[in-house]
Structures are given as structure tokens and as C-alpha cells.
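Loading example: each entry is read as two labelled lines plus one structure line.
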Amino acid sequence: MAATSSAPSLVDTLFQRSLDDLIRSLRSSSSSSVLEAAAITRALDEIRREIRSPDLDTKAVALQKLTYLASLHHLDMSWAAFHALELLPSPSLPHPRVAYLAASLSFHPSSTDLLPLATHQLRKHLAPSPANTPALVAPALHVLALASSADLACHLAPDLLPILSGQSSNPLRPKAIATALRALAVCPDAAPVLFKPLVDCLSLSSEPSAVSAAVSAFCELALAAPDPSPYLPLAPEFYRLLVDSRNNWVLIKVLKIFARLAPLERRLAVRILDPVCQLLRRSPAKSVVFECIRTVLSSLSDHDSAVRLAVDKIKEFLASDDDPNLRYLGLQALAMLGPAYLWAVDESREVVIRSLNDTDTNIRHQALCLIMGMLRESNVVEICNLLIKYAMKSDPDFANEILDAVLATCGRNVYELIVDFDWYVSLLGEMARNPHCAKGDEIERQLVDIGLRVRDARPELVRVARDLLIDPALLGNPFLCRVLSAAAWVSGEYVESSRNLLELVEALLQPRTNLLSLLVRAVYIQAVFKVVTFSFIFFIKQIQAFDTKSSADRNAAFENENDVATADKAVIFDSIDNNETFKHESLSHLLDFVETTVGPLSECDNVEIQERARNVLGLIHIIRETQYWDIVAEHELTRDKKISEIVELMEAAFSEELGPVSTNAQKRVTVPEDLILNENLSDLAEVLGDIDVTPCTSISFSLRCHHPTETKEDSAPVIEASSLLAEHRKRHGLYYLPTEKDEVESNDYPLANEPLLAVSHVDDAKDIVKLTAQSFIPRKEKPMKPRPVVIRLDEGDGDSSSGLTMVKEFKDDLLSGAIRNVLLGNESKPSSSCDMSSDRTSRRGETDASNNNELFSQPKESNALDGREHRKSSSRKSRHHTRHKEKNGSLGNEDIEETSHRHSTRSSRHQGRHKHRERGDAPPDVVSQEPVIQDFLL
Amino acid sequence: MIHFVILISRQGKVRLTKWYSPYQQKERSTVIRELSGLILSRGPKLCNFVEWKGYKVVYRRYASLYFCMCIDPDDNELEILEIIHHFVEILDRYFGSVCELDLIFNFHKAYYILDEILIAGELQESSKKAVARLIAAQDSLVETAKEEAGSISNMISQAI
């Protein structure tokens, strides 16, 4: 034999290292990772050679070594899938066992494409034969359970039946049950075949381990189903187990099932109340007690006595000082209590607050979650103040967790909990000052967001922003960079609420601002721009107002005018007297200061800063140039056209208010007629390149529209590319300084929402009022201070995920639909395809059999089709043959209710029939209107 | 259901991994890295539950080994602790006061034992005796098969 380096040779076989050798060599080299990596590489080279050996023993050892490396050293072994399959047919028992172990650890249902090759061997090993010992079948079942794709599960489902419905003492039966559960999960079409035997496993005659496995399977199915009503007919079986079983594992699963079923059927809840309470009182096992607590809190919360009992048990849990597990679970259980049971939380308030100090971070976290769940409008101020103070003292991680929780809870649903925004805004400021604060991003978002949405909070917001800005210590903290950026933006945008402009400008231009990132500095400079604009406008207006009065009563009139302005705009110039010459000095001082500080920045490398610095300098230049500036005292010149033009222009630049943007804003923009949606992307690129004519440009201006536009227009489908661009602009535009210098040009562009604005304005205002009014209705006490109007747009945030859940629900629906058909019994009985239960099927009518044939022939015909298509078509078919027809496909809630009732009657009738076979003839189709659950339970 | 079972030593070495939900190889490595960081850093006398990516991981330390199981948020944590203990007791009975080395050198046996207890992420057999009996039966079957095969391969190699 020519022994090349890569071909397997006899030498490899004779001198092959065993698994033990491999493990030893790895252990001896485990001191350094380099050595270990080398040893692994060497071993892998060996394995690659050995595994191709024709000798099965050599192959098996190689595969075993590879399995070891893959499962403990994270090597990829997907390349060896074929070699594992090669070992399956070997007559020597250890070979297929090694192969199955390798397969169950490495095969992946979606990425192992060799899986279909295993079908035949699996079938052979599952078949009832003396050669197929449990030692062989058990690993085969494992592979089927862990790695089976939908196709494989469908093909092999009938092969599980002999084990499922065979001897009750068969040790493989529990394994087959769990495997059947997996098969059902990946392939709902298998329900007609598998479901009935699964139900039989619950019966009294089954072995305890089979019952336990079956209960686990039903628990899994019922928990996963979006609508568990198909399992309602099995309630009597579960009830029997709940009352009789002494096995804690079974009890826990049964309790879980009832937690899901009880809300569907009130009488069921009443019925299980007593046994559950008994367990709750008597069971020595904490796991069962905890499950009872959960069941009571989630599904029996209408029954006060039970809840009382559960709460007492929770208190016991919370009081167990030596067991952190119970304390943790106690807190978790308290968190499950709804708002209706605040008293229960209140009773344990002390323990909960104490838990914030627990040594275990998880318990602290749980306590925090619970406290957050308790937050109401009435206690939010008190609790949040307490938490934020606590965060100051606690360790960095937990401090941030607290900040995170407070920000998330208070910001939830457009600040629904917050009534006093002045308080909240100052709380945000306090949070930013927390030495561990790393939540700058969210604080930044909320500061800006509140500025946009809550007009009444702006003065306080500006005050908080000022406090943040003038503190030089904060500038060095990189986490606060974003907060400061928001503070700068807020003070620039709402400058009219500022008390002291000079101080503000000094804060914005203090030397330490060079510690900030460049983009934030740009925001600072833009804020300075706004402040300068505002002070100039204010100055000129003051004088104009002054001028319009006659000289006789000019002093008095001026003061009046000024008072009005003050009252209107809440503007107070502390540093500026009514005497305009003094004001002129102060303004000129401000301009000088800005000019000297910003001057050097006009040479800055960063374009953003440079551009904005130049804007500011340019503005100052214009102001200085006006004739008015030189001859301040001579008021005749105020009528100079140029000055009023400049003032108007500058005023217009910043007068329009920025508003929040709805997440769905893009959908509301109608697609321009000249935009062809079917155009391909390269054409689109051209369109986008020519930015003037795209819809996106106008969308960027829709930012400026400060009234939420509740239009009823069709949400036209939007090209992905353009919507992405719009999204980008929308997101960044909000935090980007509005480039108001474009103002003049912007008139040339069509405003996307312009025609709507005039119309919708009034309606919107009404809508907002209505919204807030609604949110007040359920509150118990009217707050002292009315909640300011919070502009909120529609709720449309959840849209993006709906597609995904739809798909999942669709699949689950298939399963519950199939199960409903099986349980509710009737013609399309599954077992017809299997010999084992032929006695049962023989009782059925001729027509039923033909239905079955049709049902099962369908998948066979379509075998060639791809899996998905196949599943769909056959499931459609199977539905078609059930009694309640396609209507079910799209039923409304009432329909579900109704059918589930009918189901329960039918299936229990069916079970009855099954138990008393001597009754012979299937009863005719007369369905009594009384749900049969009653017979069992009441 | 249980999504996966991992045994990690105190030094962060993986001693056993079993995945009941489909995870790709890359994801598996990430999961193990994240979890061992999360769990090994926790001190003693803390609770045995860790929240992780919307799941819960229940772990328990025996000597130098951490037994970790990942479950759904609505599963019963205490039940899982009992399952872990159940598994350890069975290992202990099988190996005779089990230690880490037993698992290292008999990793496939540890898998077969785990497979008798859990299948598809569900508890399978709650009786320790039954598991011991099943494992013993499998072992004897495998042993006889090996003996037969051994003799045959001896004959073949001698013939060559």
C-alpha cells in the first residue's frame, strides 16, 4: 500500500492513539495555550486521516476523538457528518452509538444537509426488532429529537408509533414521547399521527416515567401555543394527575398547564382552586410551592383567598435569610402581582427596600425591577428621588442599573408617569451628576425630547442645562459629553428662557470646552450663534418699541412694553437695565467676548467647528456693520430698512419651533407622482444624486413642522433606499443643529406637509387635549399641578417586529389547528396510517377512510416539492377535511370560543368512546350543547 | 424546556456541553464564553440564578465544577436545581464519588448518562435506580459487542 501523507494507512490503524491517549496529551500540554493549540492541530490532522480509514474501528475511534474535541474545545466538526453516517449501519453496537453521539452533538437541523441520508438508518433502528436494543434505539431517538428537520420529522413520525403505543414497560417510551414532542414542534403535520398516542400515554395504565414525559410534552405544547384552547379537552386527565400524583416533577408541569388553561374556562379555575391551595399549604417541596404561587398569581388572581395564601408564602420566601434563591424568587413573585395587589407589595416594602442592599447583584436587580413595577403617578417622585440618592452611594454597575431603570420607566410611553416635568428635568440633571453615570446617551435623548414635547418644562430645562454647562468639572467626563451636548442645544434653542445671556455664553465658550469631542463643540458654537442672534434681536426690538412711543411719555411707555414682553416670553435680563445705553454696552461686551473666543476656532481643522465659528463671526460682522450700531443714541435710524430686514431675517431663522417626529412620519409622505416605485436601484441612485427633486429633501424639512400631522392619507409604500435615507436624516437631523442659515433658500423647496398644516392644526390640538384628558381619567387623585401638555404622535413603534411574530404565530397556528383536529376527533383520525391501531380505525365509516387516504396521499405526491410548500399544502388539505372547515382559517375571537366548546364536547366524547370500546358503533353526529368538561369537573 | 447544559470547571475549562436548541458552532463558543464570565465571577452564598439574554441560567457548584442549565423565563428554577442535583447524584453513584477527572476521561459516558435523564430538553427519568439500571444494561451490551469485535479484529490482524 502506498502510504502517502494524507491517505489512511495500516500504520494509522495499528498505531492509532486512543481517546485516552488524546486526552492525556491534551492535559499534559494544557499549561500553555500555544502548546494546547498545537496538540489540538496535531490531533486533528491525525483524525482527518484516520477517519477515512476503511476499518470501522479506526473510524469510530477517530470520530470519538473528534467528538471530544468538538464538544469541549469548540472545533467545527460539521465536515465529518458523512463519516458519522458511514458508521451507522455497522453491526457492531459501539459504532452506531459513537456515530449517534457525534451526530446528536454536531448535527444542526438547518445547516447539516446530509441529514436526509440518515433517514433510512434511523427508520431501521427504530423498527421493533430484537436486534434493536435500547442501547441502540435511545441514541437514535436523541438524534431525531435534536437534529431533525421538518422533513425528517415528518418522514419518521410514523416510525415512533410502535414505541409510543407499544408495551408500557418499554424504557424507550419516555424518550419516544419527548422525541414526538420535538417532531410536532418542527412539523405540525405530524400531529394527526402522533397526538393520539401521546394522549394515551397520560392514561392510568402508563408507567410513571411515561406519564411524566407526556405531561412535560403537553406542558411544552400548551405553553408554546398562542391559543391553548385545543388542550382544554385534556383537562380531566391533568386534573386527575394534579390530585393524585405524588411526583413533584409531574405536579410542576401540571400546574404550568393549568396556569395556561384556567384563564380560558372559569369553571376550571374554580375547580383547581382547592387542590392548588392544598398543595400550596402542604407541599414540602419549595419548587412545587413556588409553582403554585405562580399559578395563583398568574391565573387565579380573581380568588382573593388564594392570593392571600400565596402572598403569605411569598413572605416566607422573602424572610428566608439563609437561602438567597428563595429571596430572589420571592421578589420575582411579588413582581408578578398586578397593580390590583399593591397592598401585598406594600406589606413587604421594607424587605424590598432592604434587598437593594443585598450582597447578591441579582437580588438587587430583582428588587429594582419590582420597585420599578410599583411606580405610579402618585409615588414616582418619592421613589425616584430615593433611588437616585441611593445610586450616588452604590457601586458603579448597580448605580447605572438604577439610572437605566429610572430612565426607562419614567420615559416609558412618552413620560406617562410624569406629572411634574420640572421635577423630572432636575432629576435628569442630578442623574448626569452621578459620578458613575454612563447613561449619557439616554439622558441626552430625554433632555432634547422633553424640550421638544413639553413646552411648559422649557424654563426649568434651560435652568438645568445652565447648571450643567457652567460646571467646569463636568467637561472632563467623557460619559457626560452627550448630556452636555443636549444641554448646549437646549440652552441655544430655548434661549428666550435664559436668565443671564452673558453667563451662558461664557459657559459655552469656557476654555475647558476643548476637552469635548469636536461634534459636541460644534453644538456649543451653534448654541452661541443662537444666543447672539437672540440678544441682538431683543436689543433692536426693545429700541424699536421704545421709538414708536412719543418722547413725552416715552419712559413709562417703554417700561410697559417691556413688561408685556417679559410676561409674554418669560424673559428676564438680569444684567441689563432698561436703560438702553447700558444695554448697548453689555451687548457689545458680549459680542467682543464671543469674537475673541470664537476667532481662533475659525482656523480649526474640523469642518463643522470651522464652519460654525465662521457663521458666528460673520453674524457679528453684520451686526457691527449696521449703521444703527454706530449711532445708538440717535433713534431716527431705527427706521432704516436694512436693520429691520436683518432682524426679520434672523428672527425667522429661529422662530419656527422644532417638533418631535413620528416614527411613522415617512409613511405619511405621499409619493410624488413623478417617482416610479418600480424603478430599479441604479435609476434610483441617479434620482437620489440629484437631491433637489427627491422626496427626501422635503422630508428633512418636515422636521421643522412642529405639529403632529394626523393625516388619514394612505400610507404609501416607500422605496427602501429613500426611506433609509430619510431615516438617516430624521435620526441625525434631530440632534444636528438645524441649519437655519438655509432659511431663505428653503422657501424654494416644497414643504412636504405644508398643505396639511393649515388643515390639521386645529384637529391636532384637539387630539392632544383629548389624549391627555383620557390619560387622566383612571387616576385616583388629581395632581396639584396640572400635567403639562406632552406632544405625542401615534403609537406606531411596534410595526417593524410584527412581521416576525406573524410568521411564528402562523406556524403555531398550524400546530394547534392540527391538534384541534386530532383531539376533537372525528373522521380524519391519524391512526389510519398505522397498522397498530387498525382496530380503532375499522370502526369508522367508509367515507372517513377515503378521507384519510386523501389526506395522506397528498404529502406523498408532493414529496418532490420543497419542504415549505409541502407543509403548507398538506396542512391546508388536512384542514379542509376537518369538520369545521376553512372558516377556522381566519376566525374571529367568537369563532374560536365557539369551536373550542364544540371541541371539548367532541373530544371527551371521543375519549369516552375509546375507553369503552364495547359501545361499538360510533355515536352519530349529534353533538350535545353542554360542554363535557362539566361532566368531569363539576 | 432546557436549552442547553454546560459543565465548566472553576478555571473556565469546559467539561461537557449539550445543546437542546439548535445553536451553530460559533454561537456555542460565544455562549460559553459569556456564561463562564458571568457565572464564575459570582461569589459563594449568592443565589443560583442568572438572567441572561432573556433566558435564565440556573447553576450550581459541586467541588470544582459548575453545572449550568439554561431555561425559559417561565420555567421553574427550583425544579432545575433539583434536576442538576439529580444528575450529580446519578453520576456519583455511577462513578463512585465522582470527580472532575472521571468526567474528563469518560466524557462519552457522561453524555450517555445525561441522555438518560434529559431528552430534548425535558426531564426523562426521575428514578435514580431506573437510570442506573438502564446505563448498566447499555454498558454490558456495549462490552460484549466490543469483546466480540476485539476477537475478530485480532484474528484479522493476525491473518495479515
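Chain B has a mean pLDDT of 85.
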